[in-house]
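User: Reviewer 2 asked us to show a designed sequence for the structure in our supplementary figure. I'm pasting the structure tokens here. Could you produce the per-position amino acids so we can include them in the response letter?
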């Protein structure tokens, strides 16, 4: 197998394994407990995890896209997720716990606003809404809501660091193989 084909296969393999999904299902789902800072490498400000069956018929039940739990904004107001050294935010599923409301997002890096949604996303209690922002290089994600009530979040998705390195190595190998194949012989 030549290097070009190998690099192409490596690139394709790394593309399929590029996201890490946090489903909150490894937490107890006790709504009275805050998600501890350091969970999955992030700090969680105003977040708890709740079992999907805690309030049948609520947005918590319909918002559990993974298995048993969702994260939620504990006091019904602004919530934030941060990580020292930064992260890329691909997206997550959001569902309102009790009534329709709007969400807006800001992405911060080193105390400076680098991203902000220009529109609000309307969420309801029936259908989880995937909100994909694809923001890179932030260290804090702030989530605002209009309803003054809780919302559920599931499948918080960020790139896996190992996959990014694999993807970068595959791209570099592909470029090097391509340059060699174009060189005069």
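Assistant: Here is a per-position design you can include in the supplement:
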């Amino acid at each position: 197998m030549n290097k070009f084909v190998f690099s192409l296969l490596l690139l394709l393999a790394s593309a399929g394994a590029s996201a890490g999904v946090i489903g909150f299902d490894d937490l107890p789902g006790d709504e009275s407990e805050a998600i501890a800072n350091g969970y999955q490498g992030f700090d969680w400000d105003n977040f708890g995890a709740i079992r999907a069956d805690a309030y049948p018929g609520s947005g918590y039940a319909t918002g559990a896209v993974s298995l048993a739990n969702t994260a939620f904004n504990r006091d019904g107001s602004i919530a934030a997720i941060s990580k020292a050294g930064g992260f890329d935010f691909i997206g997550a599923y959001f569902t309102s716990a009790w009534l329709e409301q709007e969400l807006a997002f800001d992405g911060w890096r080193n105390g400076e606003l680098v991203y902000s949604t220009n529109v609000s996303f309307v969420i309801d209690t029936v259908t989880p809404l995937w909100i994909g922002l694809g923001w890179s290089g932030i260290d804090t994600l702030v989530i605002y809501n209009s309803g003054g009530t809780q919302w559920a979040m599931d499948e918080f998705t960020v790139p896996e660091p190992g996959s990014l390195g694999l993807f970068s190595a595959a791209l570099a190998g592909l470029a090097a193989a391509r340059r060699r194949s174009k060189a005069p012989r």
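For the response letter, you might also mention the following. The longest helix spans residues 161-182. The beta strands are 19-22, 43-45, 47-51, 69-73, 79-96, 101-109, 112-116, 121-123, 129-145, 151-159.
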